[in-house]
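hey can u check if this looks right to u? its 242 residues, i copy pasted from the old doc so theres a chance i mangled smth
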Amino acid sequence: MARWRSRHPNLSAGRCAARHGRERSRAAVKPYRRRRLGVCGVRRRRWGGDHAQRAPVGFPGARADQPLLDGVDEESRPVAARGARHGPAPRPPRAPGRLGRGPPVDVHAKALEVKQQSGWPIVEPGRLPSGWKPTSVRYVGVTDGFMTWHVGYETPSGTFLAVEQTKDPSRAWIAAQTNRAPREGSLSVAGRTWEKYVRDNKVQNSLLTVPPSGSGELATLVTGTASFEDMTTYIESLQPVR
């Protein structure tokens, strides 16, 4: 207590001890607070000289006399500061055409490859009216590991649909591909009877035909956001891959 009395002659021993304890607590917290200083949670580095690399003006905690990032000329400094505040500049929009989905889709070339690989009697669209555009084609394993042939198209009205084919599908495959839509009757298209599935809350229509097990034919599903009229047009264009 004598040491505290000499440093704080106007304080009692008890108040001096309490004050001394608070000062020690603040001293312990200061390093943590210093670590939190800086821009966006990043500690500033002081390189010294002309290479000082600190926060650009306008950042929280930055001073008006702080230099901008080195390597940036005078004319580009406002752009650099905006980019640091708001992230990288947005990319320019994609060129129109091709739906902004990458290279054009070659359905027939992929269909020939899959037919040779699988030996399945898969189908592909033949002649479709003007305005129909292929968007995707693939042969992959999906629900329950069933390999599935998929060809997707965009309709002239901007909706989408796809044909999905597999062999002897399970109930889980059908439920997943139709988005668990309830069955609502049937429809006769291209000489076949198709089961009709409608899911209103997510706008998905589906038409499914399943051949007898062991027949060697494939189950064919046409599904998407397109209307049943567009689906009928799509089904009538389907033909075996040759």
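Residues 32-72, 79-100 have pLDDT under 50 and may be disordered.
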